[in-house]
Specification:
By secondary structure, the protein is α+β, with helices and mostly antiparallel strands. The protein is built from 15 helices and 20 strands. It folds into two domains: 32-207, Creatinase/prolidase N-terminal domain (Creatine Amidinohydrolase, Chain A, domain 1, 3-Layer(aba) Sandwich), CATH 3.40.350.10; 212-468, Creatinase/methionine aminopeptidase superfamily (Creatine Amidinohydrolase). It has helices at residues 2-28, 39-42, 45-58, 87-93, 126-132, 137-145, 156-165, 180-187, 200-207, 212-235, 242-255, 318-337, 344-361, 369-374, 462-468, and strands at 63-68, 74-76, 79-80, 101-106, 115-121, 149-152, 171-174, 195-198, 260-261, 266-269, 290-295, 297-299, 302-303, 306-311, 387-389, 413-416, 419-420, 438-439, 442-446, 451-453. β2 (74-76) and β3 (79-80) form a beta hairpin. It binds manganese (II) ion (MN). The site of manganese (II) ion has 5 residues, from loops.
Length: 470
Amino acid sequence: MEKIKLLLVGILVLLVLSCTDQITTIVEESPLPVKLYPYETIYDEATFKARREALVNNIPNNTFALIFTNDIYLRNGSVDYDFRPSSCFFYLTGFDEPNAIAIVRKHIFGGTDQSELIMFVEERSGAWLQWLGPVYGPEGAMEYFYADTAYTIWEFKSVIKSIFDAQLYQSVYANLECNPSLVDSLYNCGGTVPTVHDINEIVDKQRVIKSSIELDLIQRAVDVTAQAFSQAIRNIEPGMYEYEVEAIFGYILKLNGCPRMAFPPIIASGPNINILHYSANSREMQNGDLVMMDYGAEYGYYAADITRTLPVNGKFTPQQATIYNIVLETIRTVINEAAPGKSYYDLYYRNRDIILDRLLEKGIISGNKNQIISSGQYRQYIPAGLAHPVGLDVHDPFPRESNGDKILKENMILAFEPHIYLYEGDQTVNQDYWNVSARIEDVVLITSTGAQVLSSSLPVEIADIEAMMK
Ligand SMILES: [Mn+2]
């Protein structure tokens, strides 16, 4: 007994000492943070440098790129919303602290196509350090993020003014939309700001094709999300609240080192199923309900996006099974036909055809297919698109070709999400099917010859889902 007491006291002393030690370290000096996540998994000089090289070769010689990260926004009182870097800024720098700006331009004196990175970052001293912890500072930006030159954010105005004053550049490519405070300091720098073009149009095209590092990060986010879905599906039962399902997702996500969700989760049961972006998640789920769950973890700033629809009581009714299986047939068909060179719109029309054909065949809706299409009535049942790229944003850019088409390419990653929505009170819909809606969403990599489902570890067949449930 004495020995155990001594041991406990010893542990307590060690804990106190180690805490004191930590606090002292943070206050006394400003150590560079040892963040294993996300830099260790993603930061790779060659990756970010190659992106900047591509950027300077994609903009005219007499221009440069000026990239802002997101602002910090007030939530209420003295509380801010969680900060997340703008995807464009993170994509080009790998830097994820707030109050940062990057200039990317061709090396003026090198005479080569090499890019030069100038960064403006929070300084490593003062109140920031005491309240929010260590930051990289200009030294860290140069040492760890390979900035050729770095300044404190306070020096931005004078440096950008001197660049404008030198009149070497006719115009600038920038993302002004994401940071009103820092954009203010651009327009108040005292110099003449040249014409500003939208940089997103250039960077979006670069972001479409994913590298193997990006694939690994998205696969990790997808794996964690699939694991969270499995855990939730095993626990769902009537009487449970939608937010309790959300809590299971959140627990698995954090347990696996994902710092946040990629978007607000949708846990929509009963009549809520027909609210496309329902996010209150506050309803008690009832026996006989369907619940549609759309969730995605974010890992290393990359998103996952998966949806499953299932009966709260663990057993699909015949009507629920009918609608679910039409959506299942649709997702299988379009993923099977997805391949490089394929038009997104052709796959969308294929998805619309299957859904309308089956709904008409089974007498779930009535009318003439061509008329349902030409009048736009089909949008009642299929209100959203079929697929979108996934990456740093859950809805990653999908730039159009010059003819306006959207073409699938090798190493694109897309979420396919066919769906059927049948609203209560819709007189074109058989009453037995009111509020019987379904969406299935899986994440897919476009390979050289077709498509590979990255979220295939999560069951999608009715029999498999029923077997998982209570
Ligand atoms: Mn989606």
